[in-house]
Amino acid sequence: FLVYQPKWNVRDDCLAGFEALLRWNHPQFGLVSPGEFIPIAEKTRSIIPLTLWVLEEVSNQSKLWQKRGFAQPISVNFSARMFELEDLAKQVQFILQKVGLDPCLLEIEITETMILEDVERVTAQLEKIRKLGVIISMDDFGSGYSSLNMLKDVAIDVLKIDLNFLRNSAQSERGQKILQATIRMAQSLDLPVIAEGVETREHVDFLLRSGCMFAQGYCYSKPVPIEEYERKVSESQIKSSKAKKQEHL
Questions:
Q1: Cα separation, 41 vs 195, whole angstroms
Q2: Fewer CB within 10 Å of terminal CB in the chain, N or C?
Q3: 202: CB partners within 8 A, 6+ apart
Q4: What pTM was computed for the model?
Q5: HSE (CB half, 13 Å, CA atoms) of 79?
Q6: Burial per residue of 137-158, b for 16 or more beta-carbon CB atoms within 10 angstroms, e otherwise
């Protein structure tokens, strides 16, 4: 099943999207950590049909919200295994067309590590997916040694700063300057930056001072079942409706 974690616009203090995360409630062992079952799914290649299922579930959810006037992009994590599919872009396109979803409401998250496994093939497939109108996000930026090369060679739309990078940088003046320089560099490339692992108000204040507009982490919400957001969406729509009525009075 899926849980969703919000991405937050820290400057305007409003929702900016979601990340969908896979969970497994085993009939015998109960909730199994993704750290346990994802590596097995990778090894057995069952991660491919799992991810295609996630793509369709997320697309259906996004389409449902779009019909209700609540259009927010939802991101899905891709593993390196997905790029073994020669027709990956066609599979993504098929799901989008089947659901009737605007491609700009789907975001695919990749990491630089998976690109390094086969740079030419992965970048070519990403370009095909991006041409569909799907958002491409580089996750865990700052966790490897080839990050700058990735920015030069891979066409991406969003940069996600690694959570450890954020936590470690915020603790020292030198680290803060490196993080701020990273944010400015991304902005010069017209790349929105999302900081992961934002847990405290101090993190948020630091991001605001550094010019980082988006954040994700427990400071805003842990990943939760969709039902919790359904209630929030309904509440938001009720408030919006009341506000519009007030304007007409």
A1: 28
A2: C
A3: 170
A4: 0.87
A5: 19
A6: bbbbbbeeeebeebbeebebbb
8 A C-beta contact, residue 192 and residue 214: yes
- pLDDT per residue as tens digits for the range 26-49: 999 999 999 999 999 999 999 999
| Tokens linked to 155 | 């066409």
Tokens 């966790």 belong to which residue?
143
Question: Contact at 8 Å (CB) between 141 and 160?
Answer: yes
**Any residues with CB less than 8 A from the CB of 217 and at least 6 apart, and which?**
163, 195, 196, 197, 198, 199, 203
- Distance between CA 230 and CA 64 in Å, rounded? 11
Cα–Cα nearest to 160, from 226, 112, 89, 203: 112
Write down the residue that tokens 């934002």 correspond to: 198
